[in-house]
Design brief:
Helix 3 links the parallel strand 4 and strand 5. The C terminus is likely disordered. About 40% of the residues lie in helices and about 20% in strands. The radius of gyration is 19 Å and the shape is globular. The two termini are about 35 Å apart. With about 280 residues, it is of the alpha/beta class. The strands form 2 sheets. A 5-stranded mixed beta sheet has the order 3-2-1-4-5. The protein has a 5-stranded mixed beta sheet with strand order 8-7-6-9-10, with helices on both faces. The chain folds into 2 domains: about 120 residues, 2-Layer Sandwich (Nucleotidyltransferase, domain 5); about 140 residues, Nucleotidyltransferase, domain 5 (2-Layer Sandwich).
């Protein structure tokens, strides 16, 4: 059976999705986080392999034709090369067309069903990515500049710990980010300090969005998809963000994701198999 593989390596889980030639999802698998910034490249490759191996046993004689992987923390040519070298050691990845990009590119693809627009993610980390009608792309993230993912769950949790609202559980980023939902709850209950933390981080996300928007030629009304655990749910934090973005760009349509990122990655892989070309994300 000929199949196409998509990997969503954003957030705290790695999701594998296999689709057939008709684009139908036929198998899925999951494992732990594969963000190499947090766990290193060898562990990231292992997490990806575990997700793929969980998806494969349910199929009879699967033949992966191509793969697209959207992995958090993989944003430059060097990052992709490091991860690809490790993945090529696996039998399924030795000879196939392989596209490795960052998780937010596939989040945009799935979030707007391939239409031009912008995707803003806030989960454990934060990032923004956009694509216009001419195929130009732009990305903005503060972590590469040495900052702690402003606007993310990690940044919110860290701010809460520094203010004394919470106790730092460990240096693990996912553990720190797990504090963020409680900060949001406290803010919704009227805690002024918690609300100030959310306002600061919402402003940081708006800055990421505006940096991407300024680099692209997007028709109005501009479409924006909000993704990640902190933005897909209706909460005070997502409300603050939407209000700030609407004030900056009045003609905007804000959506929740229309599809799953792993499935979108698998469809990119299917197109890759047909074209034989890999269109990489920008450095």
């Amino acid at each position: 059976m000929k199949v196409f593989l998509g990997i969503d390596g954003g957030g705290t889980k790695t999701m594998a999705c296999l689709v057939n030639a008709d684009g139908e999802v036929i198998s899925t698998g999951r494992s732990s986080s594969s963000n190499p910034n947090n766990i290193g490249y060898e562990q990231a490759a292992l997490a990806i392999q575990q997700a793929v191996q969980e998806a494969l046993p349910s199929l009879h004689n699967p033949q992966i034709q191509s793969a697209c992987l959207g992995i958090a923390g993989v944003a430059t040519k060097d990052h992709r090369a490091q991860l690809e070298e490790l993945l090529r050691e696996q039998n399924w990845a030795k000879l196939i067309p392989l596209k490795i990009t960052h998780d937010i590119e596939i989040a945009l693809e799935g979030g707007l069903s391939g239409r031009p627009g912008i995707c803003l993610i806030s989960g454990t980390g934060s990032s923004c990515f956009g694509k216009d009608g001419q195929g130009r792309t732009a990305r903005s993230s503060r972590r590469s500049a040495g900052e702690d993912d402003p606007g993310s769950g990690y940044a919110i949790g860290l701010a809460a710990c520094k203010s004394g609202m919470a106790t730092l559980p460990s240096d693990d980023r996912d553990s720190v980010a797990s504090i963020a939902p409680e900060v949001i709850t406290q803010a919704e209950s009227g805690n002024v300090e918690a609300r100030e933390i959310l306002a600061i981080n919402a402003d940081a996300l708006v800055k990421l969005f505006l940096e991407v928007e300024a680099q692209l030629e997007l028709r109005r009304p501009l479409e924006l998809v909000l993704a990640g655990g902190l933005l897909e749910n209706d909460s005070l934090y997502s409300k603050l963000l939407k209000e700030r973005i609407a004030n900056s760009v009045p003609s905007i349509l804000i959506h929740k994701p229309e599809g799953k990122a792993a499935e979108a990655a698998a469809m990119i892989a299917a197109r890759l198999a047909v074209s034989g070309n890999e269109k990489r994300a920008p450095n």
